[in-house]
Design brief:
The protein contains five helices and two strands, in the order H-E-H-H-H-E-H. With about 150 residues, it is mostly helical. It has one domain. It has a two-stranded parallel sheet with strand order 1-2.
């Protein structure tokens, strides 16, 4: 069963990443902004967004979406075994996220937002622990090095 899950993940993760990149830069009718925006105060923009948003659907798409959409990347150890080490996974992921946020800033197809990095990283972490749970209960593999 675990072999089948890993195969499905290997097949799906690359197209999933491409679609996610599309949404990060072009989705939801996104157009180039007239100015570059950087939001570095943690959670400030998210709190403001929640206060000023009338529809719960918009809050769920923005905040919960930033968590849930990155859960699959917590399973990257199934392709790259070095990522069974959570520290290596999170540091590599943060490096890529910072580059993506910077690209959004420089292309003006989004903003550099620390909240996105925080929520995306939480999603990755949830995915990593979900992967550990799946492996624990489906196989006897225990290769984890979690923040030593």
């Amino acid at each position: 069963m675990l072999k089948i899950l890993k195969l499905i993940f290997r097949i799906c993760i690359f197209p999933y990443a491409i679609v996610l990149l599309y949404f990060m830069f072009f989705g939801f009718g996104r157009e180039a902004m007239s100015i570059n925006i950087v939001r570095l105060q943690p959670l400030a923009s998210s709190i403001q967004f929640v206060k000023n948003t009338l529809f719960i659907k918009d809050i769920l798409i923005n905040i919960i979406g930033n968590l849930v959409m990155f859960i699959p990347f917590g399973f990257l150890a199934w392709i790259f075994p070095k990522f069974y080490d959570f520290k290596k996974l999170i540091l590599s992921f943060l490096f890529v996220l910072i580059i993506l946020e910077a690209l959004q800033y420089f292309t003006r197809l989004g903003v550099f937002d620390i909240d996105d990095i925080i929520f995306n990283s939480i999603g990755l972490s949830l995915g990593f622990y979900l992967m550990a749970f799946v492996e624990k209960y489906i196989s006897t593999t225990k290769n984890y090095k979690i923040l030593k």
